[in-house]
Predict the 3D structure of the following.
Amino acid sequence: MAQMKRGANVALTREIPDLKGLVVGVRWNAGAETVLADNLVLAAILCDRPGHAISDESFVFFNQLSSPDGSVQQLTEALDGDNEQLEIDLADVPADVERIVVVLYVNDGPAQRRTLGRLRSCVVRVLNLDGNTELVRSEELATGLRDETALALGEVYRHDGWKFRVLGDGYANGVADIAADYGITL
């Protein structure tokens, strides 16, 4: 297991040439902020080379649990201590998808006025789908968060095989900022 800082990347398929799939999990601790914890949403965006969503249907979240091609799916039950998990079948990812961005955001509604700055901890992990062995884990991403209501956690991307990069980029206006950044119509 390697712990990675923001901006660091690892060549997954160079290290594990027969890697077929991944589980990307996120763990958070909101302390007594149960409204915040209950309204955090893990999502994935399948993007083309310039970094825009392939389509609006390429946004995988609680209302759309799978990408159109089935290569990225939100798991209904997270395992091994994660709060939420996504499964990525690398062989089924369409050729026009260059990166899969994993984001966390505060859902609107009861959690209004809640920010990610209230999180005590937030870590993203990448596991080998075959056996759920942890491959990498991010550094603590909650550190330094203040008024953000969304966070780009990391991305799985193509570059001489498949790589993973820790992002840790915060957004002040939640899912609306994410949608604007990646060209998604909400």
Notes: Residues 2-182 form a domain with the Lipoxygenase-1 fold (CATH 2.60.60.30).
